């Protein structure tokens, strides 16, 4: 049993690439003829000297366009009921309640209520008898 590789072991050398059929990509986009790389004046990327002119044309077109930022909020709201509220600005100047003052008032009200309990609510000594058989 093998590892899924080629059963023809004589193709495993450096000359294995010479016998292979070129891919469609290689046929339509041949590798560069020159090996020296030239930087693009626009984007500073490096390209083969025979490809730099084609790249410069494309690079000028793409860098000339001003692209607006994608608005995720707009896309999420599209088709929902929330779209009518998208331009409403929230009021951030809302006065917050003073929780400490509220707490103090509540505690003093509870203390006052305990002082003026009705007679039925006051503590009474209850006698409990335990009967054992």
Structure description:
The chain is mainly alpha-helical and 133 residues long. Helix content is 31%, strand content 5%. It has a two-stranded antiparallel ribbon with strand order 1-2. The longest helix is centred in the C-terminal third of the chain and has 17 residues, at 99-115. The protein starts with 23 loop residues before the first helix and ends in an 18-residue tail after the last helix.
Unreliable parts? none
Principal-axis shape: elongated
End-to-end distance:
88 Å
DSSP summary, beta strand count: 2
Approximately how much beta-strand content do the residues carry? Answer: under 5%
- List the strand order in the largest sheet: 1-2
The Rg value, from CA coordinates, equals 42 Å
Short description:
By secondary structure, the protein is mainly alpha-helical. 31% of the residues lie in helices and 5% in strands. The protein has a two-stranded antiparallel ribbon with strand order 1-2.
Task: Supply database-style keywords.
single chain; mainly alpha; 31% helix; elongated; two-stranded antiparallel sheet; 5% strand
Write the layout of secondary structure elements.
Layout: H1 24-28, E1 37-39, E2 46-48, H2 52-64, H3 72-77, H4 99-115
Antiparallel strand pairs: 1-2
